[in-house]
Amino acid sequence: MSQSSSGYGVRRRAVIGTLGAGASAGLGGCLRRARSIAGWDSMDPVSLRIKTLPADSDPYALHAARTITSWYRAAGIDAQVVPVSEEELLRQVLLNKNFDVFLVRMAARQRDPDALYGLLHSQFADARGWQNPFGYADLDVDEWLETQRRSTGDRRREAVAELQRSIARSQPFTVVGFPDEIRAARRGNYTNWQSANFRSPQGYLTLGRIVEGTAEGGDDADSVLRVVGTDRRATENLNPLSVEYRRSGVLTGLLYDAIGQPTPEGTTPWLAESWAFAESDDGPRATVRLRSDQTWHDGEPVTAEDVAFTYALLADTSLGSSEGQDGETAAETRVPAPRFQGRIGLVDDVRTPAADRVVFQFGDCSPRVATRAFTVPVLPKHVWQDRTDAVSISGIEVGSATEALVTNNIPPVGSGPLRFVQNTPRESLHLEANESHFLFDDEGTGARPGVGPPAFDRLVLQVVGSDDAAVGVVADGGADVTGTPVGADTVPRIGRTADLGLLVQRSTSPYVVGYNTQTPPLTNPRFRHALARLIDRSHLAAEVFDGYVRPAVRLLEGTEWVPEELRWDGADPVTPFLGTEGEVDAARARTEFRDAGFQYEDGRLVRGQ
Length: 609
Fold this sequence. Notes:
SBP_5_dom, disordered N terminus, 5-stranded mixed β-sheet, Peptide/nickel transport system substrate-binding protein, 27 strands, alpha+beta, about 600 residues
């Protein structure tokens, strides 16, 4: 570099350093002249768009997003809320990564720490689905995620604690809280409403039937469980792999069986009769024995080949048939399912030594973690093997998707305790009991305690336009229960209506604010950390959720895995709110963002181009 250009570089850095120190707003003209000399012709205002659901899709999300937006604006950020339908929101966020910030309820997650692996590991930064939708990459986090997989006891607890400390500092997402799920149920036809967990498919299998008073015909009439809700997607698409149609897998979980089911104590056999682990040089190995005489809803037998096919399909829905235009190998162009990747990634190999036995070879993980891989839906090979071709639009193949990912899968063919009868898109779905299911054999020997064959012959889902309308249908006797949770504003009506019971259950699906860490300025962890300090969870709990939420700061909140110093105790111990009682302290907020490397111009947060 010449002396003259070097001198210019020194002067330019000096000027930029002066600007970064934060000159007085009254020197606006001088600042503009200085920026021109420095090569900064303009300063970009920081602008964020928060995508969330409209009020008719979620009783809290839009209100919460607007409140958070007001706090962003108080800190000088140009922020706006963009309401988007749930199907389109999940498509934009999980498939296309087209967002700055989103606020949604995450899908219900297992409370095992390994659930964080697929959510945050950098190997999934470019993946689609709930696998790292933030595009987040942190080598320390990767190390702790991998360590906890292969560790047990105190070592695993230490790794999980360090993992959560790293996440708390870098804030790829900000947890708001775990809402209470509110439902209305009629007392007349079924029992056990209060203990039934409707966040899980098995919750519908714990209901008891009241024979006396059964509508239309008593003992000889078919019993119908009438469910009403606001989510129309199950009436249009029953593909368990479709991210944009699956925030909840409750209904597809009744249509499809998994090898095992998650419980608070771990994973328990379901479609499997049993499994046994042994150590090998390559990691844990499990031999799974399937229940005998199980069939798909079309009468075909369920075999080990179906299980092996399922795991191959979820790892690559093209089954290795894809090849890049430049001759890349199939492994480089594989099309994994946008769901279940974190769990499928535990499996290195699957063998089928017999029709009722499957041998799984796992990678470097503990047996307890390995059993998470058993909780994916098993699919019939004879139905899904013809869905491995690349999707084509007007004859042009779309390499990032296969037919398995885009089919609506109606009618579905599963092996679960319920089977498909008919659907009317956007209006209704009819299912019926599958009496060939193992739950009907000797009262479901070996299944989870308290879970038995359906207490109803048919399940009918009706779709309405709002929470209030859903409660009205139950109140008028047109349904037995609101299948989707309703907002707190419906509680008074439920409480004063005869024959209605109020069901309130703590959810495992938290509201989170997610950040696109691959888009500036959200690439800056200090900026995300400052954003997290603009969220007052106590205010949101009182003013948005009417108290029907448990404020939280960790996804594992409420479990033994969160160290004491990271737990919510009325405030966030790592990113406390920059204000009091829902009011942002603008001076403190400006200091926080300046410390993160940003500046202010005319009251607006800005960054240089």
